[in-house]
Amino acid sequence: MSYCVKCGVELDDTAKKCPLCNTAVYMPNADISSNEDQAPFSQVKMIPMDAKKEFIASVITVLLAIPMIVCGIVNLFYRKDGLWSVYVITSVLLFWVIVILPFYLKKIRPYLMWFIDTAAVLVYVYVFFPLRNENANYYLTVALPIIAAVSLCVLIFIKWARGKERHWSSVIIHLAIDIAVISAVTGIISLYYSVVWGAVASIIVFLSVLSLMAFGIYCNRSAKVRAWLEKKFFI
Predict the structure, then answer these.
(1) Which residues, 6+ apart, have CB-to-CB distance to 220 below 8 Å?
(2) Which secondary-structure segment (H or E) carries 89?
(3) How many Cα atoms within 13 Å fall on the side-chain side of residue 160?
């Protein structure tokens, strides 16, 4: 407990001046390393990461909602080319579900997102068939098998990646295998329905993925190459 040397009033331990006579307080036992100008509270604004994520997601959501609303209103008065705004709206909604929705989640749940994304893609593709006057049979025989193959590969990858920590070379190999399976399924379906461009594209992707797979296997077996790549590219 300390007192003012001039008026004798009792002082607080943190007082710099006497509250009564404004006399400077001298405390020889005080820590000389303390900063007199230090503010009692931190001046740094600490924003929780979840709040930042939600704010960014909300801003992007508003920006995405604007073209959907505008296209919907314009399409109401201009229907010469049909309900073309549905293409825009469903595409934006699919992007929002896959990219923006995870920002609102407190904790990323891979299996839940896999289910939601698969359902969103199924609805998205199904909407496009009636708009293009396509037969629903194409949805069942073409779109559905391809979506199922992609969804199954993604599910297997999630289960495999969550088992334990995986090296990046193993991840490359697994992704290459998944893409190869998807391209093979797409190529077979394209050949069955005589879609030449689809079959050609599938073959190109399949061959490209084989090269990527070979690179991953080589890196996975050579510790020297892995060490050089990790040092060179910080991976």
Answers:
(1) 167, 169, 170, 173, 226
(2) helix 85-95
(3) 16
Q: Which of helix, strand or coil describes residue 9? A: coil
Number of residues that this document lists for the chain:
235
What pLDDT is recorded for position 29?
60
In this structure, the number of other CB atoms found within 10 A of the CB of residue 165 comes to 6
Residue in 216, 107, 221, 222 with CA at minimum distance from that of residue 169: 216
**DSSP states along 28-88:** TTS-TTS-TT--SS--S----HHHHHHHHHHHHHHHHHHHHHHHHHHHHH--TT-STHHHH
Nearest residue to 171 via CA among 235, 102, 107, 109: 235
Which residues are paired to 24 by β-bridges?
17
pLDDT score at 204: 93
Model pTM?
A: 0.67
